[in-house]
Amino acid sequence: MFTIITGAQFGDEGKGKIVDMMASQYDIVARFQGGDNAGHTVVAEGKTYKLHLIPSGVLFGARLLIGPGTVMNPKILMEELSMLSESGVDVTPEKLGIDAKTSIIMPYHVALDSLRESRRAVKIGTTSRGIGYAYIDKVGRDEIQMADIADKNRFLRRFDEIAPQKEAAIKELGGDSEVAREGIDEYLEIGRKLKPYITDVSREINLALKEGKKVLAEGAQGSHLDVIHGTQKFVTSSSTVAGSACAGLGVGPTKVDNVIGVIKAYITRVGEGPLPTEQNNGVGEHLREKGGEFGTTTGRPRRCGWFDLPLARKSIDLNGYTALALTKLDVLTGLDPLKICMGYDLDSENIDYPPELSDELSGCKPVYNELAGWNEDISDMENFSELPGNAKKYVELIEHLMGAGIEYISVGPGRKQTFMR
Predict the structure, then answer these.
(1) What is the pLDDT of residues 371-397, one digit of tens each?
(2) How do 215-218 and 2-7 pair as beta strands?
(3) Domain 103-193 belongs to what topology?
(4) Domain 2-99+196-259, CATH number (from 3.30.950.30, 3.30.870.10, 3.40.440.10, 3.50.50.60)
(5) Is 12 a residue of the active site?
(6) What global pTM score does this model have?
């Protein structure tokens, strides 16, 4: 069985929590796109694990894979391995595999990313972690791969070919060109340590599926940050929708059995770009504080707003969800009335689906439907029947409006605070 999990909004929907919940049922958990600009938080047995590259199923017995569709900063990976080891979780080569073709984020990628963002007249809100420039090199066939840093001679030949153009690019943007050659010895040492982890991810997954094993593909960010279908130019540098899992892991689309979307009971966004239901008021503060809405990677406060039905509909189209997981329902406790964005007013025209262009989406004014809220603490409730009547009505209404079934509901950050519908 092959299951794909993606975020249905702008990221930060709680995918790590859902993957952690499901991982015990799967033999393999594989990351298929993005880099350490993503952050998945897992809370288990009173401990909080903030992961950026290692798949969220690390606390279970599943085999973990990082696919060639990702871009990887090896220094960040080593920090994660060390953090997990200190918490008593040893991630050996038997536990984790990294595809030989995984692109490596180099120091010059980080430098170029930061320099370019600082010179933009209109900021994107990038994490400045080199993700975009690593993907540029992948597409431009100038990448350094995992297999390269594990072989000193191979790496140096490749690096000597690429370094001069990176030095020139950094200098052109007003930076210190010497940054391009920083940390090379450290990268080679990390490559030596990671060599036993190298594998052929596509081969592993396809063999596992042939043997009747279960594979869970984990995405980063959210559907509306997709580099093709998202709110251009305020997007990430990779394809975040479900179809990307097939390309990023090397698995044919006919092998997909389930596609699960993770969606918050409200909506958030980090960085710039349109967010039609954004609440720059007490409601926004309530959502941010109660929901702990601060970036796992950057620590930046997230922009918060009411649930956006048109954006949810588009995510369902983009991903073909077979089921949804609704997270952070508990954060809405104490808000009354609750609002759901049913559609938009764009230039005096009512529409129920997001316009394609970002500047048009920025001009959309939300049209709301109001519902009564609830004040009961739901964070300890373990099944749908226990929820207050108004909480049930909220879930049932957005499920009906989306036309997609909500199978999982989360009422808190802990592992035990998620139940099946």
Answers:
(1) 999 999 999 999 999 999 999 999 999
(2) parallel
(3) Adenylosuccinate Synthetase, subunit A; domain 2 (1.10.300)
(4) 3.40.440.10
(5) yes
(6) 0.93
